[in-house]
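From: lab user (bench 3)
To: helpdesk
Subject: output format question, protein + nicotinamide-adenine-dinucleotide

Hello, I'm new to running complex predictions and I'm not sure whether the block I got back is the full result or only part of it. Here's what I submitted:
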Amino acid sequence: MTASRISRRTALQITASGLAAAPWWRPALGAQGEPLPERAIGRPFPQGASLPEEPPAKPGGESVGVAIIGLGGYALGQMMPAFSTAKNIHIAGLVSGNQEKAQRVARAYGVPEDAIYGYDNFADIASDDRIEAVYIILPSGLHADWAEKAFAAGKHVLCEKPMALNSAECERMIAAGRRADRKLMIGYRCHFEPYNLRAMGLMREDVLGRLRTIRTAHTYRLGPTTPAENWRVNRALAGGGPLEDYGIYGLQAALYLSGEMPEAISAINDTPPNDPRFSQIFAHTASQLRFPSGAVAQLSTSYDAASENRVSVRGELGTLVMDPATSYRGNVMTLDTEEGSETLEPGDSTVQFSRQLEHFAQAIRQGTDVKTPGEMGLRDVRLMEAIYRSAAEGRTVRLAPDGTMRG
Ligand code: NAD
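Helpdesk reply: Thanks, we reran it on our side. This is the complete output you should expect:
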């Protein structure tokens, strides 16, 4: 098992904390308690997350100050540590509903106590000049509201994927960013990851000849849990299930490797009965995308299948396989063409986190466009809506070039 898979699983255990020994068919203690609310609330310090031993060095004058909204597994496990290797951006504030956790994190990261905000006094951040931007790392169903609140406070927004749970929310976020004249970037880290960047380059150079198929698999097995304790299986906070959370990497890869938008989508979902994990969400989603060039992408994602993180691309003249393809670290890439087979090593995958942050800061300082804007997030959410529509109606859905459904 790769380290990246372990860390993903760790992140899941955080939200399913204490459940390892629970019988599969019986909800664990607490699972029947209060449902997770559809608003931001404080949560315990994530299991397995660690804090830096030393606070990071003081930022330079030009560095962009960011407040982190949501101190969960991805924030504490991956993104916050990456600020220490990013040159032009630093953590200047924290927003959390758990003040004890926030104070502990603030001490470790050298964030002043008066730069800790709660969800209830967030609006006060507007007058805090130390904070120019926010990074929203909350459950996906809360992204839209918090992006709007951040724009209302005059801050730039970096928002985790999926951008939101439906296209109307995405459109609201884009409109709010335009009104505030602030940047909106989606945390699509693979656009900053050396293996995926190399794959994009190889496809642009037509190394495989005419593209025929792209197959992606993003699967793992979610531990026993319920919608009352884990937002990932709670429809209001997560949407339809693994597609928004993990399958989105396959969807993204199909688009950035083909360089095309699909013109038709067909899909199926599956959900096992009597499984508390899947009382509100789908367990598996498989979809097929046809591109105008005639190439086809087959995407599968699951919360109930052994771990796989793979992208394979087949052209008329060769094959490119990435396995793992979109991990936090340790991606592997093999290129097979008429000239032979080659393992490519374009760089250290872990730079993706700090490069994503640096790009966001640079766009703010230089007034340039971001590579992964809200419009890209909206496009992907539209395609996921088409996937769900196709599965629900049992038919192929045809698409306009912007991803909206025809008819
Ligand atoms: P998590 O459960 O570990 O953390 C979520 C945090 O949100 C909690 O710790 C809590 O502080 C806060 N929160 C506020 N209101 C909440 C509520 N009502 N219910 C639950 N938590 C609430 O989740 P995570 O894995 O850190 O995911 C957060 C976001 O980051 C999601 O949008 C997810 O898709 C995204 N993510 C992205 C990547 C990536 O590789 N880009 C990886 C993991 C997660």
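A quick orientation on your result: The CA atoms of residues 96 and 323 lie 36 Å apart. Let us know if anything else is unclear.
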